[in-house]
Write the structure tokens for this entry.
Amino acid sequence: MSFPLSEPEAPRGGLPSPNPAEPAVLDERMQELANIVPDGEQKALFQELLTMYREESLPRLRLLAAAWSAGDIVKAKSEAHFLAGSSANLGLRRLADWLRALEVVARQAPLPPADGLLPKLEAQWLEACAAFEVYAR
Amino acid sequence: MKTILIADDDPVMVKLLEFNLRRAGYATVVCVEGLSVCERMRTSQPDLVILDMMLPGRSGLELLHDFKADPALAALPVVVVTSQGKNSTQEELLGAGARNVFTKPFSPTILMARLRELLGETATV
């Protein structure tokens, strides 16, 4: 099963927002990941993946927000791209799609004002990690 | 044992790929930086390369052109993984020599089946 991210249109003005109708974690993706490991090893793998994701992605969320605030299009775009792909790999659908939308906006200057981007990113990130962790317990 | 070089800077992606490949009986070599991929290919002599589209230092597309220009690397099968779903990008990558393009998040099972085909082994899916 595959569910490639859509290519959203760049919204006119302002920051795109996460879509609350989308699931924080895709059950289908979790099943797909579970299928690659023998029974009994799934939770250990999920926990390891989550730990790696947390360690890598949180600093990069901060880099993304800092780049956005500074108007650094190249850095904002590359960080949003990396984070969207990494989040999608774990099935963190709402966060991944939002980051993809931010990447699309970051392709064009000037960037819209950051308007509390970092706390919004951190809140979505926490929610996504918590939803994933349910599968790792 | 066949060796697969993973060129990707996302530790989560690398972990998933290594997990799958080792379970399937392949050795893995990892490269997280674009500028050192060619050198790593020469020293580790992999049977296949899984290449991320956006590596720091050098893009997947640039690297595909580098491989093509180097007789020692030109024949190696390369599978590209990317977060971008645009058809134009896929066509560009395939035109530059990629044997397959997988858009993240892709099915590990389907990827493994394709790798076996490219390595001349029987696909099980």
Notes: The mean pLDDT of chain B is 91. The beta strands of chain B are 3-7, 27-31, 48-52, 54-55, 58-59, 78-82, 100-103. The first strand of chain B starts at residue 3 and ends at 7.
